[in-house]
Specification:
The protein is mainly alpha-helical. Helix content is 70%, strand content 7%. It is built from 6 helices and 2 strands; from the N terminus they run H-H-H-H-E-E-H-H. It has a two-stranded antiparallel ribbon with strand order 1-2. Strand 1 and strand 2 form a beta hairpin. The longest helix is centred in the first third of the chain and has 28 residues. The radius of gyration is 18 Å and the shape is globular. It starts with a helix and ends with a helix.
Length: 149
């Protein structure tokens, strides 16, 4: 593939990714979640055994301050609680309360259902290919971006 083709394809793909990002950003805003709140909520909701604040920071690329503020807000709302991790008594895990699971499921379950329906528009081999190629792309992009900071 020529350099011009790669540049053109990169621009086209980046446009699709920005649209994708904007779809999620709009969806979260419609549901009253701003900034990183949406991805932090997903991380906690999808963690059945609880998740540490450090792990939330790592998987959402959020600062400690942002994660702490979201958790504090959800503690006040009664959506989450902190528990000591069994394998490391010095570490606390964030867990969802029943109220928190109800809150999160109203937001995240319809989204997950829409994602499944959208994925079903692709044939099985296309689904696999999409995942493999996007993973390969993200791995390289992460490597390049981490090398530059």
């Amino acid at each position: 593939m020529s350099r011009i083709d790669a540049k053109t394809h990169s621009k086209a793909f980046t446009g699709i990714k920005y649209e994708d990002f904007s779809l999620y950003e709009n969806y979260s805003r419609v549901h009253g979640l701003l900034g990183k709140g949406f991805t932090i909520l997903m991380a906690i909701y999808n963690s059945e055994r609880g998740i540490t604040q450090r792990d939330i920071c790592n998987c959402t690329f959020s600062t400690k301050q942002v994660v702490n503020a979201a958790i504090k807000n959800w503690l006040d709302e009664g959506y989450v609680y902190l528990t000591v991790k069994e394998d490391d008594r010095r570490t606390k895990a964030v867990m969802m309360t029943e109220k928190g699971r109800e809150y999160a499921s109203k937001i995240l379950d319809p989204l997950a259902e829409a994602e499944v329906i959208a994925m079903k528009t692709l044939k099985s081999h296309e689904q696999k290919q999409l995942i493999e190629l996007y993973t390969k792309y993200n791995c390289k992009l992460r490597e390049l971006l981490e090398d530059n900071h």
